[in-house]
Amino acid sequence: MNLFQDVNSIQSEKTKRYRTGWADIDWVFGSNLNDPLMYIGLPAGALTLMGGEAGVGKTRLCVSLMSSLIDNGFTVFYNQLEMTSSQFRSQYMPNKRFPVGKFLVSDECFTLDQQLEALKQIRPQVAIIDSVNRIEGFNGGHGADDIQRAFREIAPEIGCHVIFLAHLTVDGKIKGGTNLPHMGDIVTYMTRFDTSKTMTPSPKNCIKIQVGKTRFGKSDLFAIARHTNEGVECISANHLVDGNFVLENDFHVASVKQNYSACLLAAAAQQQGLTQEDLSDDGMQDLNEDNLQQYNKSLGFGNNFVQKFLNR
Fold first, then answer.
1. For 93-126, how does the pLDDT look when each residue is reduced to its tens digit (9 = 90+)?
2. d(Cα 70, Cα 203) in Å, to the nearest integer?
3. Quick one: which of 136, 144, 282, 284 has the most CB atoms within 10 Å?
């Protein structure tokens, strides 16, 4: 058995990704300077640790995200360890119907073996563990390494992106000891977000999803979402294109800071072979409708979104 090999003999491969239908979230979970159109979305086989203070809406966000993933044709699994399945259904989606077999829920998979067996049987594209602190054997974070090893073996095998929800301490750190943040390929933080200083008009009940660490893109990216009566919606793309506010987000597309609409234009331009210098007022006219329609559909937006670009 060889313990090492020449790097020239190793084949590189692109990571498969799952588009959530929320464009900002797709960028946050993976964007790459060399290929921004391909490298967005939840990376298959990866582990995400999502921390958030109590009551910020982690579960609510994930339920809305799961719903969007199902709309995109994916199968999802929610391992609910904080309440019964009936309470989960009543509190977060009392009247919503999903395609049969697309949204699987359990409130009994507390042990690591039970969770791994459920993943093997369901083989979902995305799974939520709510929360990692409630897994038997977690032991205040001392069992994080065992949990990580087990999920790191099965997630790539079945092509599943696993999201572990975790609590934050009063000083903003993920609860569970210093080992816990190391178990995720991606670590995100959910916090309440005051829009009054950055957005006009200022939406209420907003949250910020910030990447602290990632092995699949750029760190320090973020998305803004807000709570509604129906659930949670990602708002920064809609409001930027509608012109209601300008929110600077560092997507590092074309190596510069740009707002979201400029980011999409740069990506669409790259698809047509245009350079950063082409993104002038005249250059934008070279972006044809078919190209933008194709790019628009890949990110889950409607025709009105494309038309706003064409009318700029």
1. 999 999 999 999 999 999 999 999 999 999 999 9
2. 27
3. 144
227, 270: one domain: no
Q: Is the pLDDT of residue 201 over 90?
A: no
**Residue 10 within any structural domain of the chain:** no
Written as six digits, the tokens of 267 are 């990506």
The HSE-up count of residue 193 (CA atoms within 13 Å, CB side) is 24
Strands 47-52 and 161-167, bridge-based pairing: parallel
- The 3-state DSSP class for residue 221 equals coil
Between CA 72 and CA 70 the distance in angstroms is 5
Look up the domain containing 167 and give its range: 16-237
Are residues 68 and 215 both part of a single domain? yes
Confidence of residue 85 (pLDDT cuts 50, 70, 90): very high
Q: Specify the 3-state DSSP secondary structure of 48.
A: strand
Mean pLDDT over residues 268-282, rounded?
A: 49
Q: What is the mean pLDDT of residues 45-62?
A: 93
Q: What backbone phi and psi angles, to 5 degrees, belong to 282?
A: -70, -40
Residues 162 and 229 in one domain: yes
| Torsion of the alpha carbons at 41, 138, 107 and 72, rounded to the nearest 10 | 0
Q: Do residues 17 and 161 make contact, with C-beta atoms less than 8 angstroms apart?
A: no
Domain identity same for 142 and 36: yes
CATH number at 67 reads 3.40.50.300
Output the average pLDDT for the chain: 76
